[in-house]
Design goal:
The protein has helices spanning about 35-40, 60-70, 90-100, 120-135, 175-185, 195-200, 220-235, and strands at about 5-10, 30, 30-35, 50-55, 80-85, 105-110, 135-140, 145-150, 155, 165-175, 205-210. It is of the alpha/beta class. The relative contact order is 0.17. The structure holds cytidine-5'-monophosphate.
Length: about 240
Amino acid sequence: MMNNTCVIVPAAGSGVRMGGAIPKQFLNLAGRPILHHTLSALVKMPSLSMILLIVAEGYVAKTRQLVSQWRLGQPVTVAEVRVAAGGRERSDSVYNGLGMLPEECEWVMIHDAVRPFASPALIRAVWEGARATGACIAAVPSTDTVKLVRDGNVCQTLARDEVWLVQTPQVFRKQIVTAAYERAVSKGWKGTDDASFVERMGSPVSIVEGERTNIKVTSPEDLQWAEWYIATIESGRR
Ligand code: C5P
């Protein structure tokens, strides 16, 4: 059993690609905010000590109020949900969160607020996968061919059987991810996921096969797909 796991949920994005005024994590999906769906999946994980939600500065008070009113479904295993302010880039938001974790926290799970469909089984598998290496991420093999493109021209085609599309959750031993982020900040490295900083330190990162349904709700089409997906699951239950 890996005790003392804290979850950081970066939710401080502005959602420019969605096009609206409300950040996508607060948009409704089947009648409740996307963030509510995401938290409902996370709270089912056994032995979580804390969920730390990182939101944009102007949303801290509102989110605290929202979360205090939410019923997240059963069983709720987490001892505490906290809300704090994020930064300009996703990595700034996560770095803020890392600095707020309690001393006794040994493992850190990082999960995007806008991935409402990660199943409890996947969340658990990534968490258990981190035990051996200290770092584990969810990813799916690419079914599309991936090419590197610069200035509108292809420069390289990657070997498809080696290309994986990376998701969250990502789980790390706290010492590893904190050291990786400190190094990244001091060197000015940029990264769009957390594991990339751990990789750059030369630490191993293992993979658990993710779920194609664990999408990151980014564009209006994603939101439409998400509505359809929930309706499909619910009609299957009836
Ligand atoms: O924009 P991106 O796709 O990287 O967003 C992934 C997650 O990171 C989203 O849940 C978003 O709210 C969060 N994020 C953040 N702080 C930022 C930018 C994005 O917490 N400055």
